[in-house]
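pls design
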C-alpha cells in the first residue's frame, strides 16, 4: 500500500485523471437517468452531441491542474458556465471547487482570491436569472462549498510547505554532517602526519648518530661498530613499518607547524593526574610492561585515552568517575576506558559519529586494530580498543 501511495505521489497526473473520470462518470450517470425517465427516451433537455463535449471538457483541465494550475482553473470556469447554464449535471460545481483548492494549495492566495472573485461575479449574475425562486440558497451553497475548498487548500498548502522545509533542512543537515565528518578526518590525519614526522625524525636521527659512530669504531672497536649497525637496522625496520601502516590512511602532506616531543604510555600517569585536577576522578591500571612499546603505538594509546577522558569530562556530568585499564597481552595491547556517567546524556555521541570518535578509530586503524565505543547496559560509557604490534 505504501509503495502504491509513493508511486501515485510520483505520478500526480494519474490520480488527477482518475478524479476527472470519476466526476465525468457521475455526470454521465445523471444524464443517462434523465434520458431513461424522459418521454419516449428522447434527449429533450440537452442533445448528446452537446452534453458529452461539455461533460468531458469541464473535467479535462483537472488532468493538468498541478502542472498548469491557473490555466486549468480558468478553463474549468469558462466551460463550467456553459455546463451549468444548460443544467447538464453537477460536474461544474465540483471542478470549480477543485480549481480553487488547487490555486490555494499550489499557487498563491492572490491567484485564488482573483479566481474566487471572478466566479462570484458569474454566480451573482447567473443565479437570479437561472434560479429566480431560490437564487439566494444557491448562492449560499456555492459559497459554502468554495469556503470549504479554500480551507482545505490552506491546510494542504501548509503541510506541503512544512514537509518541503523539513526535507530541505534534512538535506542541509546531511550535507553539513558529511562535510564535518570529512573535515574531522582530514584534520585528524594531518595531526597524525605531524606526529609521524616526529617519530620518523627521531628514528632517522638515531640511525645517523649510530652510523657516524660505527664509521669511527669499525677499525678500532669492531664490536661497538657491529652493535651500532644492528641498532641502525632495528630502528630502520621500525620506522619503515610505521610508514607502511600510516601512509595507507594519510593522504595529505604535513603542513608544518610547531613540533613538540610526543607523549606515550609513560605519560599516562601525568594525563590521569591532570584530568583528576579538573574534577574527574580517574583510576589508572597498567598491567604488563608497556614502556618498551614502539613509539607510534604508545602515542596512539595516549591519544585514545586522552580523547576518551576528554569526552567523559564533557558529556558524563557531575559525580562521574572513570577507570582506565591498559593491559599488554603478548603482542597486543588492550585498552578500556569506562565511566559511570548518565547514559541519557551520552547516547547521542555515538549516534552522531562525533569527531573524537572518528579520531580514535583512525588511530586504531593505523595499526590494524579495532575500537568500539558506546553506552553500557548498567549506565555510563565505555571505549575499548585492541592494538596489535607484534610485527612492528
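designed seq:
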Amino acid at each position: 500500500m505504501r509503495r502504491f501511495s509513493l508511486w501515485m505521489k510520483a505520478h500526480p497526473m494519474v490520480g488527477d485523471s482518475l478524479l476527472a473520470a470519476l466526476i465525468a462518470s457521475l455526470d454521465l450517470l445523471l444524464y443517462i437517468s434523465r434520458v431513461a425517465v424522459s418521454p419516449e427516451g428522447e434527449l429533450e433537455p440537452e442533445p448528446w452531441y452537446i452534453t458529452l463535449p461539455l461533460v468531458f471538457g469541464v473535467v479535462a483541465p483537472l488532468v493538468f491542474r498541478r502542472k498548469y494550475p491557473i490555466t486549468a482553473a480558468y478553463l474549468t470556469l469558462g466551460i463550467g458556465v456553459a455546463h451549468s447554464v444548460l443544467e447538464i449535471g453537477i460536474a461544474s460545481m465540483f471542478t470549480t471547487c477543485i480549481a480553487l483548492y488547487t490555486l490555494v494549495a499550489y499557487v498563491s492566495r492572490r491567484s485564488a482570491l482573483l479566481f474566487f472573485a471572478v466566479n462570484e461575479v458569474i454566480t451573482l449574475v447567473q443565479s437570479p436569472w437561472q434560479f429566480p425562486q431560490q437564487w439566494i440558497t444557491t448562492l449560499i451553497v456555492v459559497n459554502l462549498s468554495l469556503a470549504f475548498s479554500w480551507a482545505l487548500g490552506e491546510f494542504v498548502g501548509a503541510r506541503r510547505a512544512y514537509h518541503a522545509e523539513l526535507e530541505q533542512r534534512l538535506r542541509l543537515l546531511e550535507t553539513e554532517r558529511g562535510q564535518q565528518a570529512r573535515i574531522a578526518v582530514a584534520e585528524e590525519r594531518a595531526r597524525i602526519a605531524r606526529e609521524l614526522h616526529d617519530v620518523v625524525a627521531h628514528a632517522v636521527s638515531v640511525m645517523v648518530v649510530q652510523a657516524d659512530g660505527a664509521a669511527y669504531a669499525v677499525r678500532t672497536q669492531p664490536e661497538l661498530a657491529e652493535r651500532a649497525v644492528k641498532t641502525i637496522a632495528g630502528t630502520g625496520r621500525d620506522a619503515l613499518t610505521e610508514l607502511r601502516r600510516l601512509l595507507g590512511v594519510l593522504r595529505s602532506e604535513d603542513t608544518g607547524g610547531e613540533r613538540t616531543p610526543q607523549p606515550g604510555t609513560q605519560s599516562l600517569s601525568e594525563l590521569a593526574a591532570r584530568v583528576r585536577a579538573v574534577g574527574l576522578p580517574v583510576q589508572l591500571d597498567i598491567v604488563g610492561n608497556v614502556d618498551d612499546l614502539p613509539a607510534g603505538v604508545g602515542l596512539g594509546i595516549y591519544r585514545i585515552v586522552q580523547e576518551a577522558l576528554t569526552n567523559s569530562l564533557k558529556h558524563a556530568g557531575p559525580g562521574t568517575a572513570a577507570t582506565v585499564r591498559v593491559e599488554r597481552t603478548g603482542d597486543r595491547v588492550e585498552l578500556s576506558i569506562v565511566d559511570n556517567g548518565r547514559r541519557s546524556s551520552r547516547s547521542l555521541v555515538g549516534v552522531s559519529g562525533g569527531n573524537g570518535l572518528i579520531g580514535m578509530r583512525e588511530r586504531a586503524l593505523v595499526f590494524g586494530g579495532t575500537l568500539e565505543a558506546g553506552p553500557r547496559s548498567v549506565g555510563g560509557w565505555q571505549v575499548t580498543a585492541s592494538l596489535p604490534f607484534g610485527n612492528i
